[in-house]
Amino acid sequence: MSSLREIAESRSISVGTCVNYSTWKDDGDYRNLISEEFNMLTPENCLKWSFIHPEKEEFDFEKADELVEFARENEMGVTGHTLVWHMQNPEWLGEENFESEEVERIMKNHIMEVVSHYSGEVEAWDVVNEAVNDEAELRESIWLKAMGEEYIEKAFREASKHCDAKLFYNDYGLIYDTEKREKVHQLLSDLLDKGVPIDGIGLQSHFIGVHPTSEEISNTIEKFQDLGLEVRMTELDVAYEKGKAPEKLEEKQTEYYRKIFQAYLENGVKHLCLWGLRDSDSWINTFQDYDEKYSDRPLLFGENGDRKKSYEEVKDSIKELN
Ligand code: G3I
User: Fold this and answer.
1) Which runs of consecutive H residues, i.e. helices, occur in 118-225?
2) Secondary structure (DSSP) of 200-242
3) Cβ(221)–Cβ(231) below 8 Å
4) Phi/psi of residue 48, nearest 5 degrees
């Protein structure tokens, strides 16, 4: 029987998962399943600032290097996640009261160091992640405070100087939160008008307690494609509220997985990435706002690595592509 990866490759599609370094290091089954079933990976955490830039003058590339090496050995693409975010920043960044000019210098230096270190290895970067909040406004962060909205433009311009990777803006909620979608659309449209080098948008697809229709997914994809951007599906997981879970939860989830893949694929999306391998690996289980509230089976593989029905549906939806 063909693997998900084989089916995807036969249709020139990239399917990925995020990879947790510690699990990857300790668990051979995890490693094998990833290289067998996926042709793309995104390090889940180890490219984030607090891990890769733990002290002002210190970069720690070791863990991310190992994942990139694994990807190279297994002929997988790598998405770099992420260069500029409001979260998972190192303590030193907040501790010293840096002047605005210094914050800008630190951000640009970080981008230069990290992006050039992985030049030729990382195929696409999430340059700016989640810059807009749930109120559809620019999100408070050290970056916004120091540079205003221009930090976004500065980040993309700096990244483009040091690699040929595709440069993405990545965010959640854009499919079902219309106000946020409008804000991000306007933001990217303005940046593109100014000639800022943005290649695409990553639509994070954390469908946790909210399950947009195929039409909503398609409309969102088209809206950003109309700007000339490449659209990728990033960070997919599907979870239902525990109390409200439909009786046949797995069937419901399976059907929904098919719908999602069909909607993305029908709109020409070629890179699709899940946020985790097995149900037991999902961040949802460890996120305190979610672990009590949502079902703990959000992914395509069960905790023993067994292939769920959703996995088969996803494969079938890719097979249906001509
Ligand atoms: O590794 C440290 C460890 O040294 C420390 O002792 C421990 C104490 O809390 O924390 C460990 O770090 C954790 C890290 O994951 C690695 O396991 C952080 O606390 C924890 O907050 C972090 O969670 C990650 C979260 O992003 C924040 O960075 C999740 O694994 C990761 O799945 C999640 O992914 C995000 C995307 O990057 C952006 N979009 C939303 C998505 C889900 O929240």
Assistant:
1) 142-147, 150-162, 178-193, 214-225
2) EEEEEEEEES----HHHHHHHHHHHHTTT-EEEEEEEEEE-BT
3) yes
4) -75, 155
- Alpha-carbon span 267 to 15, nearest angstrom: 16
Q: How confident is the model at residue 245 (pLDDT cuts 50, 70, 90)?
A: low
Distance 286 CA to ligand 1 centre (A): 9
Q: Are the C-beta atoms of residues 110 and 66 closer than 8 Å to each other?
A: no
The burial class, CB within 10 Å (0-12 / 13-18 / 19+), for 169 is buried
Distance (Å, rounded) from C-alpha 18 to C-alpha 316? 22
Active-site residue 102, yes or no? no
For ligand 1, atom 43, the nearest C-alpha belongs to: 283
pLDDT digits (tens, 9 = 90+) for 222-243: 999 999 999 999 999 999 988 7
Asked if 163 and 115 count as a contact pair (C-beta separation under 8 A), the reply is yes
Residue whose CA is at the smallest distance from ligand 1 atom 34: 44
Burial pattern 126-149, b for ≥16 Cβ within 10 A else e, equals bbbbbbbeeebebbebbbbebbee
Pocket test for ligand 1, best of 18, 44, 53 (most atoms within 8 A of CB): 44
Are β-strands 14-19 and 77-84 bridged in parallel, bridged antiparallel, or unpaired? unpaired
- Cis amide leading into 286 (omega within 30): no
Q: What does the pLDDT look like over 43-58, one tens digit per residue?
A: 999 999 999 999 999 9
User: Does the pTM of the predicted model rise above 0.70?
Assistant: yes
Q: Is the pLDDT of residue 86 over 80?
A: yes
